[in-house]
Design a protein that fits this description.
three-stranded parallel beta sheet, 23 helices, 27 strands, LRR_dom_sf, F-box domain-containing protein
Length: 750
């Protein structure tokens, strides 16, 4: 037990305990109870052991062993309460509906709290906008605030002090500050999406009203008027809210805040300095789409924008974080926004001369000089950009060299802006000039990366193929000095230990290029990720090219043995999958071992491959009867195509190509791929042979569980109709094939 307490690798401990619990859950209930009574394990020891397990293991393993274990694990299973309030139009119905909603959810919450005991309560308030009238929205929100405050002050109500997590999704014209201030006595997590623009964030008041707050996430709509400003008493920027504790003289100088995310804010030195000074325990600071200057006030349209500190923002944040927040480890800074820097401020960021990944080709221009002491402790970087150009790439390289960069997150305004809204210096349009080109080149040079999140960055799937010649651009399109270099081989990603990957993959010329094959591109993407990044734990892919059918190669992702979360977002028509498309997802490979088919102890082979002693034909009836339905479907598709069948069958010495080291390579589907690139075997990448090779590997490891750590699997189809719901079999099949995985199936919700 002491070793379990001191260990830092929770995943290894969870894996060992899960195998132990799997053995207990496989025996009968009576035998399990008998063993449990004989061992008589201490309950305190069991609680310590259960604390290392994930939610899936607690739900589907521990709770099924016996009643005693289920009772001990129940407080550790996280459940939440969601409250969605719809503001009615009729003022006479508001108070009644609000009071009814609060009463019902109060009772629901009390029942849930008694059931889960020590679990943290979580309340989510979603306010749906009914009108764009500011006065009307303010009145409706005021009614809700009054009801919540009255409920919170009621002596009979005891749920207010226990609220620790609060999420508010408000309308555009709704001031949201009174809610967390009224319910923030024990608040630790606060997420507000859609803060009211043209207001001031009263962080000093929050510091007093929410002394236990640890995680703060604020996002402004900023669709109308200026973004939110931090409270700045030095310049007269203060909030008009009353301090509920002003009469008792309670002043708190230090805040225990650890995570802070501010999106669409206007910052100044005089406002950021005192805010960071009050947060010495801050470990993560994300400034997304921050405006480094203020726009002219509405009453003075002739006035020019006031420049705050756009030029020295990077150096300033480095000094501030080193002095005021010494514990910070994750930082996101706003990189130059072209629409503010080049147009309104007259190019204060300087010219952008090139878009080539080759840093040595950049022209003389003002650069950002980083010093190691300022960023020595930061290992997780985030960048808020609309367009990534060479200076951003140079900045990434500086971070990589100085700080052993491990985490990278890219934020953009919209997918359209970050991919296509390029200035003249970023021309010509194409994949080599887009953000994905530079990020792909950076990942090929960053072996220490562990987490990469860039949901709005677009890269072509075919661009990942290592044998496809690359095209690099240098110079300036607007000055007529653009040059092009072709024929260079593409490297593969160097981040073999990558744990998190959130990216958007696409094909800009989809449907317009001769020989366009969605199945091949889908197999290429799944095969590339499964081989280059074998240690992935969290994977999110958005693309309109993905094919989830058996021929699309989704089964190739099962090579990721450590995968815990998988999210597939497809922006096109829904795919109605059958059992033969999903049969591969079962925990163990469906194969009946027959000793008569095992030739002298040699390993069992697929219907397309041969061993040193025998060659198994595709028409082998015995082999086909002992394979999964997915593999049967793949073999039937190959068998129906005689030309493809001929290419996939083993060839003689004269029909094979010999590598210079003596290794024989087959030319599948008319394409030749290198066998090993940077230590990764990419043979048959994008070909149907990659799927057949996967099933051969799966047979050899048929006793090992598929995705043993998987907890969450989500698929989302965007821009499609909800018709023909009776033909949708995927959710039902997933419940049958893998009941231990939490599966979500969304249509048009992203």
């Amino acid at each position: 037990m002491n070793m379990l307490k001191e260990t830092e690798n929770h995943s290894c401990a969870s894996q060992m305990i899960k195998s132990f619990l799997t053995h207990f859950s496989s025996v009968s209930v009576s035998k399990t109870r008998e063993k449990y009574q004989k061992t008589a394990l201490n309950q305190d020891i069991l609680r310590i052991v259960f604390s290392f397990l994930n939610q899936s293991c607690l739900r589907y393993y521990v709770s099924l062993v016996c009643k005693e274990w289920a009772e001990l694990a129940r407080p550790l299973i996280i459940k939440s309460l969601c409250w969605e309030a719809l503001i009615p139009d009729d003022p006479t119905e508001r108070a009644t509906q609000f009071q009814k909603a609060v009463t019902i959810n109060e009772l629901t919450w009390m029942r849930g709290y008694r059931a889960r005991r020590s679990s943290d309560p979580y309340v989510r308030i979603s306010i749906y906008q009914q009108s764009y009238d500011f006065d009307e929205e303010k009145t409706r929100w005021g009614d809700l605030v009054d009801v919540l405050q009255s409920v919170g002050t009621d002596s009979k109500d005891r749920w207010k002090p226990r609220i620790q997590k609060l999420e508010i999704s408000a309308a555009f014209f709704v001031p949201v500050w009174p809610i967390p201030l009224a319910l923030g006595a024990s608040l630790t997590n606060l997420h507000i999406w859609g803060c009211f623009s043209q207001t001031v964030f009263p962080w000093r008041l929050f510091l007093k009203s929410c002394p236990k707050l640890l995680h703060l996430n604020l996002r402004s709509t900023a669709l109308y008027g200026d973004p939110i400003q931090l409270e700045d008493p030095q310049n007269g920027i203060i909030s008009n809210l009353d301090d509920p504790r002003s009469d008792n003289g309670f002043v708190m100088e230090v805040w225990s805040l650890q995570t802070c995310i501010l999106q669409r804010f206007t910052l100044s030195k005089s406002s950021l300095n005192p805010f960071l000074s009050a947060c010495p325990e801050l470990r993560m600071l994300y400034l997304i789409d921050v405006i480094p200057f203020t726009r002219p006030p509405p009453q003075d349209p002739v006035a020019k924008p006031v420049h705050l500190f756009a030029r020295e923002l990077f150096e300033y944040i480095g000094h501030v974080c080193a002095e005021l927040c010494p514990k910070i480890r994750s930082l996101c800074i706003p990189l130059p926004l072209n629409e503010y820097g080049s147009r309104e401020m007259g190019g204060i960021w300087g010219p952008v001369s090139t878009i080539s990944p080759n840093v040595q080709q950049q022209q003389q221009q003002p650069t950002i000089q980083l010093q190691s002491p300022h960023f020595a402790n930061i290992d997780s970087w985030g960048f808020a950009v609309k367009n990534m150009h060479l200076r951003t790439f140079s900045f990434l390289q500086e971070c990589q060299i100085q700080n052993r960069l491990t985490s990278l997150e890219i934020f953009g305004s919209t997918p359209r802006n970050i991919s296509f809204n390029l200035a003249d210096e970023f021309m010509p349009y194409g994949p080599e000039a887009a953000v994905g080109n530079l990020l792909h080149a950076f990942m090929c040079q960053a072996p220490n990366l562990l987490h990469v999140k860039a949901r709005e960055v677009n890269v072509e799937i075919d661009f990942l193929h290592p044998t496809r010649p690359s095209t690099l651009y240098s110079g300036s399109y607007s000055l007529g000095t653009l040059s092009r270099t072709d024929g260079q081989k593409r490297p593969i990603w160097a981040c073999r230990n990558l744990r998190t990957l959130h990216w958007k993959f696409d094909e800009r010329q989809a449907g317009h290029r001769p020989g366009f094959d969605r199945m091949r591109l889908s197999r290429m993407l799944f095969g590339y990720i499964s081989r280059v990044c074998p240690k992935l734990q969290d994977l999110s892919i958005q693309s309109d090219i993905l094919e989830l059918y058996a021929e699309g190669g989704l089964c190739l992702l099962s090579r990721l043995k450590c995968l815990e979360r998988l999210e597939l977002i497809i922006s096109r028509s829904e795919q109605l999958l059958e059992i033969h498309d999903l049969d591969w997802i079962q925990r163990n490979y469906v194969y009946q071992h027959d000793d008569n088919n095992d030739n002298n102890g040699t390993t069992l082979t697929s219907g397309l491959y041969s061993t040193q002693t025998t060659t198994t034909s595709i028409s082998d009836h015995t082999t086909k009867n002992n394979i999964s339905q997915t593999e049967k479907h793949i073999l039937a598709a190959i068998e129906s195509d005689n030309q493809l069948k001929t290419r996939l069958q083993p060839r003689s010495q004269s029909q094979t190509q010999t590598h210079r080291y003596g290794r024989k390579l087959l030319r599948n589907e008319g394409h030749q791929t290198s066998s090993m690139i940077d230590g990764v075997d990419l043979q048959h990448l994008g070909e149907i042979g990659d799927i057949t090779k996967y099933f051969e590997e799966r047979r050899l490891q048929r006793n090992k569980c598929l995705w043993p750590n998987m907890e969450y699997f989500r698929t989302c189809f965007i821009f499609l109709s909800r018709e023909n719901t009776s033909d949708r079999k995927w959710p039902q099949l997933m419940k049958i094939l893998r009941p231990d995985i939490k599966f979500e199936y969304d249509l048009g919700n992203y």
